[in-house]
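A reminder before we start the practical. When you read a complex entry, don't treat the lines as separate problems. The point of joint prediction is that each chain is placed relative to the others, so the output describes one connected object in space. Small molecules and nucleic acid strands, if listed, are placed in the same frame. In the example below there are three entries. Take a minute to note the order of the lines before looking further.
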Amino acid sequence: MSVSETTTDEFDDTLIAEPDRSAPARIRLSPGPTRRPTPEPAAPAITRQIVFDARGVWVDYGAKRALEDVTMTIERNLATALIGPSGCGKSTFLRCLNRMNDSIPGFSVGGELRYHGHDLYGPTANRVEVRRRIGMVFQKPNPFPKSIYDNVAWAPRNLGMKDGLDERVERALRGAALWDEVKDRLKQSALGLSGGQQQRLCIARAIAVEPDVVLLDEPASALDPIATASIEDLIHELKLRYTIVIVTHNMQQAMRVADRTAFFSLDENRTGALIEYADTKTLFSHPADSRTRDYITGQFG
Amino acid sequence: MSTVTPDPEFSLRPSGNLARRLLISRAAQGGAVIAAALAVVILLILIGFTVVHGIGALSWSFLTGNLPAATGQAGGIGPALLGTAELALIAGIISVTLGILTALFLTEFASPRVAAPVAATLDVLAGLPTIVAGVFVYGIVVAHFGESGIAAAIALSMVMTPLVARATLESLRRVPATWRDAAAALGVSHWRTVLTVILPGAASGITTAAILAVARGAGETAPLLFTSALYGNNVQLNPLHALPNLPLEIYTLIETGYPVSVQMAWGAAFLLMMTILLVNIVARIGLRRGERKRGL
Amino acid sequence: MRRMSALSPAPPLSGPAQERARRARLRLTDLRASRTLTVLAWIGAAVIVITMGSVGFQVIRGASEAIGRFGPLFAFHAAWIPNLNKLGGLSYLYGSLVTSLVSLVFATILGVSIGIFLALLAPRPVANVIGPLVEMLAAIPTVVLGLIGIIVISPFSAHTLEPLFHGVLGWTGLFGAPAQNGASLFTASLVLTIMVLPIISALSRDIFRTVPQELRDGAEALGATRWEMIRGVVLPTTVSGITGACVLGFARAMGEAIAVTQVVGNASLIHANLFFPGTTLASAIANQFESPQNSLTESALYYLALILLIVGVLTSIVSRRIISRGAKLT
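Here is the predicted structure of the whole assembly.
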């Protein structure tokens, strides 16, 4: 279960670095309306530690099925992108990973969703503990109306990490590439920051408690191109230390930041479903499913 | 994809200080639930005592009979029922008219510079202690003309008008701007738009506001204390005289302290409270229905 | 007027002259109606403003004799002896402040908790039942509340709550040995709590609901418990609005006359002990205004009304300010 691989930051012509290619990179998950996904063949040559293991996960909002039968694994220290048209359930799936949907009325989830082998929705899983290990950054920057310092220090304080708090805040802000911009005004309100800075502050806030996973829900969709670029750069840094799952509607962004990409779409019942999951390069260059191909080419022209 | 055995390093059971934090959180949430339960229990206790003490006093003669001729005597509350109905009616007419006009003024006719001080005045009037309204009307009306139903209704409407105006204002603002635009686009003049589009659009909200204000006014005591207190013990419907009314009758019956009087006070309190609560419930349900029908 | 013809179908067989006359008539109607409605709205607003103005004028004029005699120090003299023309408002002001503040403490603790429950904890269907039930407390006529206050709350207060508070908090001096039959500042505070509670709980519920879902999600996504989310994010962002709600509740308590008069004991005394009878500004007016002993006493009662009025105006301005400032922040 060694994490041997150096992650690939560059994404020009080369595919994902060598060891991964020997693995059966592409799994065609829901090829048709009724067929069950075929179980994966024998163990891959290089085993990464599996962080999330979803098998037949479905989600209902009241009587409406939002997501059908998702089976995929998400591996450690990779950036995994979830793409697809709006309403395809990619955000719903992301929010299942740290149980952010729990408080939505009518929400119910089924199938099997494991985190390092622990049932995420099992009786021994505590929702607060889940979120402490699996942080999340939202679409719209949502800093608390507190000082920059307190935004980052708030969660560690809750957790009782009171020793070396200043260093922890600095480390988190550095980790989010924000330190140099805010070090002289830590006591000022976070609401005075620009949108891109606010979003990086939210990332700093999330990594201040040293989570295992950081979930990013369209983190750059409300930002201008320059701020977006800085967030993308940051993601390359982050995945050295954390497992990243990112929802994005921007395919270039997925190509730039993600090692693996999962394509979600609506099936014939207008229910969200996982269509295809592969190495990013493979998915975009040789999509196995016609729906994936249509989506990609439709966007690229 | 072999099944991974649970990795103890990533257990999702509460770790570190979480057990303690969860305990605190649950205690705090429990406190909030208890507070809400306590409020409901208080309401039930208040209603319960009034029902238990009051229901026994009810009888046909109690409802229709004249007020006790002297303190400590038995009697009915018929004149007070009629008087309260009349006061609520007069004060309702005054306050609904004034309240709707003021709300229209604020939303339709006033420039922001004029509207701001009027809105502020409305707020001050809404916060006016009810007893001061009574003192005021005593000074300008009763001191010159003596007590009367009219004076009492004026004092009551000072309490009720801000309620009507505020609620009307809220409903007027909820009328979709598109309706107004559509009317303007058809070339309908402003006053016609106001009367045929905007007011009807806010009708359910305004009706509810009017009903709630009347219910509130019917239960007010302080504005009547110096304006309609010196009434006789039989039916009086002339609004130029002091009108017998339920709130003051309850107030004075309690003050006498005779068991028979307190018993009557409970009966009257039961009637007054139940009527007002029922009207409140019905008006609120009606409002919700009305809004749902319009898709608001 | 072309735009009117859009509304009213043109009458058949009308010559050009008739048509012109009809349009002129319509234009005139239009003008008149528009003017009437505008004038009526202005009158409505004017009545509000004039009424409020004359309340101030009337109360000041009524109080002028007492103002001339006692000056602003009236509010700081305790003696109220009408026969000797020694009149001061301190005991009334004291009673009003004490009962209002004590009830505000109770009502804030309970009301904010209820607001939290309704806005953040309870499922919507539950909140939609409990919320209106709590608001029903505000619909109970004050005289009925006073009746229940005398018969039910006073004995309960005297025999149960007062010994309890005396035992636990007696050392503060505020909660002395229970006295008499329960007619006391403390009982008045309890009755006022019931009146103020629905105001604070409804307002704080509405204020808590304005906290954006994204902020609450943001807190929970950081591994905060529900309570940490409320204490660390919801309460700090709404503190100004809640303060405004408390100010409104305070104003309501200060102005209440009837129910307080029924249970407060009406003794113009100043005691630290809340279990002693006292009196308030509003209940002094309710008790004495009908038949004041002399014109100076009547004027002094107007003076008390003036103090109430000033408190009412100030609280309304302050709460408006606080709430609008809070609205700007979020």
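Discuss with your neighbour: Residues 208 and 283 of chain B are 5 Å apart (CA to CA). What might explain this?
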